[in-house]
Structures are given as structure tokens and as C-alpha cells.
Co-chaperonin GroES (Salinibacter ruber), 672 residues
Amino acid sequence: MTSIKPLGDRVVVQPKPAEEKTESGLYIPDSAKEKPQEGTVVATGPGRVEDGTRIEMTVEEGDDVLYGKYAGTEVTLDGDEYLIMRESDIFGVVEG
Amino acid sequence: MTSIKPLGDRVVVQPKPAEEKTESGLYIPDSAKEKPQEGTVVATGPGRVEDGTRIEMTVEEGDDVLYGKYAGTEVTLDGDEYLIMRESDIFGVVEG
Amino acid sequence: MTSIKPLGDRVVVQPKPAEEKTESGLYIPDSAKEKPQEGTVVATGPGRVEDGTRIEMTVEEGDDVLYGKYAGTEVTLDGDEYLIMRESDIFGVVEG
Amino acid sequence: MTSIKPLGDRVVVQPKPAEEKTESGLYIPDSAKEKPQEGTVVATGPGRVEDGTRIEMTVEEGDDVLYGKYAGTEVTLDGDEYLIMRESDIFGVVEG
Amino acid sequence: MTSIKPLGDRVVVQPKPAEEKTESGLYIPDSAKEKPQEGTVVATGPGRVEDGTRIEMTVEEGDDVLYGKYAGTEVTLDGDEYLIMRESDIFGVVEG
Amino acid sequence: MTSIKPLGDRVVVQPKPAEEKTESGLYIPDSAKEKPQEGTVVATGPGRVEDGTRIEMTVEEGDDVLYGKYAGTEVTLDGDEYLIMRESDIFGVVEG
Amino acid sequence: MTSIKPLGDRVVVQPKPAEEKTESGLYIPDSAKEKPQEGTVVATGPGRVEDGTRIEMTVEEGDDVLYGKYAGTEVTLDGDEYLIMRESDIFGVVEG
């Protein structure tokens, strides 16, 4: 099976499908503000190097994360769509 | 119950509803300048790392804070609207 | 009474009313250059952190300061208008 | 045979041909997002110098890498097309 | 008498009147290039802080300095016009 | 004979003439991507200074180098055309 | 006699007149590329301060230097035209 080992502070995220319609099928824009997307981390890089020191990653495999709608680059692996983004593009980890 | 653990120097803020009308219902623009919004901090990240040292956060849960009208990204948790923003987007803490 | 504790190197300034008219009521543009505004510092933050060290603030409460016409964000406290700006937006302290 | 010794953190990549058509010959745009390209590293620089320390390269010769569609500069060596790009333009290494 | 204590690496300069006309009253543009203005330093800040160290100022009160036509912000003190600018806006000191 | 001693991390390069036509005289654009130019290093600066340390140059006199089409500034010495560019404008050294 | 003591890493250069015509009086554009100008250094600053250390200047009085066509600011001293520019605007020193 194919996988990607991200470089630096990049992570591979498997996005959850966006729910943009209500059950009755209407599109409801709640606000003009950008809403974050949700996904699951499937691979993380070793962290970026700053002034000779590697900064450890905060997120890990299996984390449910929120990120901006325009974060990352799409990549297809064995027919599934993933996103490669920098950890700094991740807003936070969803818990509970 | 769902919650978000912000990364780096991000905070989750529950905004207070803006009062843009007078009691009689008129919109009164006092000035062309951007006015800050007010909200309550409900979660804080661990702080960002600079040159290998983590900078501690200044705001904490329960703080009433002021922030710019365009700060942060909206996120919905269990039906409530929150904002995820960087601590540097916060102007100050309201007291008294 | 409500007050604001600014974060980082921000200060709260109570602006003095601009005098843009002569005594006889005429507007006299002396120059196309931006003229600084004058105000009084009413609260200061603890200073910003650079490379793990907090840089002490130079201005203090009660200082009369000059700042650019477009500096800061307006905020209303108990009916009075204030500006929250960074110390670096302040040009100098007026003395004598 | 001609070869290129890249400077700093640059790498020479031999790109794989993009498959933009289905077997029946139709172009299928899956998404408006930029898709990474895939190639094989054929030469790496010694790494860039930051604050007097050389940062070691992460990728090595023979690695299959993903990079942005607009990354790098084309160069022709003995009739074959290559790309010279910075290591930071590489998203990750494909494994398996 | 009113005076200004500049913050950081700012200086207060009293500009000399520009001579843009010849004695016979004609305007003579020598070149399309910006010409520096000349003025006298009347107050200097303590210098800016970089990495916890204060960088000493180079110019001092009484120095005749050259600066760009668009440098600084005009301020009126007791009826006289001054400019507040950063020391880095000053090209050099006129001697002799 | 006139020569140039470049400052900092600049190098003087004698460009090789571009071959943009086939032997039969047709212009063949292979790709919309920028193609690097090739030239020979004839002089190098001492290297730039970063944080008080001089970074040694990587290329040396006689090296065949690749650089971007828009890199450098043309200079004429004793009737010959050269380019002065920064070492960071050089992609790599051609060998073999 | 009037002279200028440049601040930081600035230098005062006396430009040589550009020769843009052939002997028979025709203007010959060799290339669309910017050509450097030549001049003689008549004064140098003490060097700029980086992280508390003064970086020594490389050029000195009397050096013939090349610089970009748009580098520096014109200044007139005792009727002669000079340019004040940063040392980093100088490409190299002409020798021989």
C-alpha cells in the first residue's frame, strides 16, 4: 500500500466530507466567515528545524483536526483523497 | 460534549452579540474606525514556540477579551458559534 | 467602573479633540503631510516578549503622547472613546 | 555524461509524466485544488546554511517525491528534462 | 515651553526651508531623482531595542542632517513646524 | 586589463550564448517554464556576512553554472558582456 | 568646504558621466537589461549595526564602484552632484 512521509512540519490529513446542506436539502449560509474543515491526521513529518533545533510536532496520527477551507494540497493515494498541509495551518484538535 | 484544544498561541472565544442598533432601532455609526468585538475565552493553546522556548499565554479561560471585527475563524460546536484566533489578535482584557 | 488591561505592548490612549478650525471657523490645511494626534495614556500592557525576554514599556499612565492619525482601534468604555494602539505607533511624549 | 551539482538546499528531480486523461481519453478534473506532481530525486545539494550551521538535507537520491505543479525550473541534460527546486518545495516522500 | 521626547530611534528635526527657485525666480528641476532635505536635529530618542540591547543613536542635538523628501511626520510645537522621523530615515550628517 | 571585484556574495558570470533555434532555424518552445541560462564564473565576492560570520562562497572561478533567465545585471568590461549576480541566483554547477 | 558623513552603511559616490552615445552620435541599446553605473566613493559610513555588532564597510574612499541605475539619492554639495546609497546597492569594485 502506498503512503506519504511528509517533510518538515507537514501533515497528511484525510478530510471528512463537508455537510453544506440541511436534511431537507437547502444550503444554509450561516455567516460570510470562513468555516474550518475537519479531518483526521494520517501521517506527520518530523517537525521543522529552526536555528539548528527540530521543533517537535504537536498533532499525531489519529487526531481529529480543524483547518482552513483553503489549507493544503490535494493528493490521491490508492484512490482516496488526502490533504498535505503545514501544522501551522491546523487551528486545533477536536476532542470528546 | 465536544471541545477544541487549540494549537500554538490560538484561543477559542465565545463572542458576545454585537449591539449595532439603538433601543429605538436605529443604526448609529459613531465613527468610520473599526470597533473591537467582545467575547469570553473558553479554551487556550499551550503558547507558540520561539527559538526553542514556549511563550506562555497571557489570557486564560473566563477572560473577557476585545478583538478586531475580522479576527479569527468561526467554528460551530454542539450548535454554538465560537471563534478560533491567535492571542496576538486580542487587544486586551476587560476588567471590572 | 470598566477598564481594559492591554496585552503585550499595547496602550490605551484617551485622545484630545482635534482642532481643525481657526477661531473664526475656517479650516486651514498647512500641509499635505499627516499630522500626529495627541492623547493621554490611561493604561499600558506589560510589554511584548522578544526571544524570551519581555521588553519594558517606555510610556506610562498620564503621559501625553503623539501618534499617527490612523493609529489604533476605537473602543468605548462607560460612554467615553479611547484608542488601543501599540507603543510603536507612538511617536513621542509631549513635555512642558 | 553531464550532471548538475545543486547549490544550497536545491535538488534535481526527474518528473514522472502526468496522467491527466482516463483510459478512454477524457480529461477529468476532480477538483479545483492544485494537485502535486511526482518525480524522482537524482541529485541533492549540501543543504543551506542558517546562522553558520549547515542544515542537512532530508531527501536523498532515488526518493520518490511530491511537489507543487509550479515548483522548480526546467533544465535539459543530455536530452532529458529535469527540474531544479528547493527542498522546501517538496511536500513529502512517497513510500511503498 | 513645549518639547517632545521621541520614543525609540526617532528624532525631532527642524527643517530648513527648501530653495526650489533660482534668484530670478525660475523653478529649475535638475533631475527626476528625489533630492534630500536638510534640517537640524532638536531632540533624539534613546535608541531602539534589538534582542534586549539598546542600539545607541548616532546623531545628536544640533546635527545638520539630510533626509528624504517624504520622511517623517509633521508636528507643530509653539507655532513652529518640526518633523519626527526614525534615525534610519536620515542619510547623513552635513559637516563644514 | 579591467576586472571587477564583486562585493558580498556576488559573482561575475560570463554567459554562454543561448541556443534558441534548431539547426534548420526553427524556434522550438519546449515548455512555458523558464529555462536556466548557462555561464562561467570569472570572479567571486568574499561571501556575505550573517550575524558577524562570513558565509564562504560555494562556487569558484571557472565553474560552469546555471542561473535564471532574469538573474543579474549586465556589465561590459573591455568590450565583453558579463553578468553580476548573487550566488543565491545560481541553481547549480554543471559537471562532466 | 562642505562634506557629508554618511550614517550606517551608506556611502557618498561621485558618479561618472554615462556614455550613452557612440562617437558618431547614435544611441545604441545593447540589451533591455539594466546596466550598472560607475562612480567613485568619496565618503563612507561607519557600517550598520546587526545584533549589537558593527559590520565593517568593504568599500573605501577612492574606490571605483558599479551600482544600479536607480540606486541612491542625489545630493548637491558646493555645486557638484553626488549620490548617497547603501553599500548593498554597490555591485562591485572596478580594478585595473
